[in-house]
Specification:
100 residues; mainly alpha; 2 helices; globular
C-alpha cells in the first residue's frame, strides 16, 4: 500500500446525506413509530428540507474548517425536488453558517 500524493481528496471533500430517513444508511432517532429506527413517521418535501438544512447548519457549526470551501449541492432522481426546497430553506435564514 502507498499514499497517492495526487488524490482528489487533497483538493476536495464530499458530504453525503441520505434523506429522508430511513433511506440507505440513515436511521431515525428517536426510533419513530416502528421502535427500531426504520420508520420515522410521515415526511414531506418541506419537512425533509427543514431537517436537511438543520443538519447542514449543525455540520457547519461542528466543522468550521470547511466553511471557507465552495459548496455545491447536488443529487439524483427525486433530488430535483429536494435540492430546490433545501436551498430555499437555507436562504430563509440570512444568518446561516452555510451561507458564509
Amino acid at each position: 500500500m502507498f499514499r497517492n500524493p495526487h488524490t482528489w481528496t487533497t483538493v476536495a471533500n464530499i458530504l453525503i446525506i441520505n434523506n429522508p430517513p430511513p433511506v440507505a444508511y440513515s436511521f431515525c432517532y428517536p426510533e419513530g413509530p416502528s421502535g427500531n429506527g426504520s420508520s420515522c413517521g410521515t415526511h414531506n418535501d418541506s419537512r425533509t428540507a427543514f431537517h436537511s438544512a438543520t443538519y447542514l447548519e449543525n455540520f457547519a457549526y461542528g466543522f468550521p474548517e470547511f466553511m471557507n470551501n465552495d459548496w455545491y449541492i447536488t443529487g439524483e432522481s427525486y433530488a430535483g425536488v429536494y435540492i430546490p426546497t433545501l436551498v430555499r430553506e437555507i436562504m430563509k435564514n440570512p444568518e446561516s453558517l452555510v451561507l458564509r
